[in-house]
Task: structure prediction
Amino acid sequence: MNTPRPHVVAVLRRCGARLFPGDPAHHDVLPPLLVVLTFVTGLVDAVSYLGLHHVFVANMTGNVVFLGFALAGGTGLSAVASAAAGASFLAGALAGGRIAPLIGRPVRLFALLVAAHAVLVAAALVTGLADHTTYVLIVLLAFGMGVQNAVVRKIAVPDLTTTVLTLTLTGLAADRPGPATVRRVLSVVAMFGGALAGGVLQLHHGTPAALAPALLLLSAVALAAWSATV
Result:
């Protein structure tokens, strides 16, 4: 009798094939898992913006702009928080970039670094249960998002960057409809859905409640990717 693990992996591979028709590799199980990570990005940025001094820990374009606004004297923003997020994100990306060459298979690399991100979110969730931990949360979450971006950049699956939608939206408007359109729409919907869910949870139930689904999803993604390598 088949075990659930091969069944799940087979479903993920079929989803990847549908998202990349005509591509013999189909990027294995990665495309649908990257859509899930895009949802997680929305969750995490909802936590950071709504609960941690109006700072982004995933969207560094917005964070750099917020840093400029804060230094200009804008109210409701923290230059220290924005700088801490940016520095932690860079440190996470640096760590991910140094680890990547040591792991040969892209899916295995993805699984291990997403698992590391899950550990960081777990630490942030536990930290969020205590008081006066804003900057610790910013550092943990931004470092984790830096790691995520490093692995996503390394595997380079088209249209599924998990954090940046500017070029995705540009492609939707500028390019003719095709297979890429589906991937781009999924990315936008996933980010919006994550931000909406994270916003509701953060505003009505607090940071731990908003981080809990992010931790569960990251753990599931890491497990599914690892299952595809064994």
Notes: The chain has one domain: 30-227. The chain is about 75% helix and 0% strand. Residues 179-205 form the longest helix (27 residues). The chain has a mean pLDDT of 91.
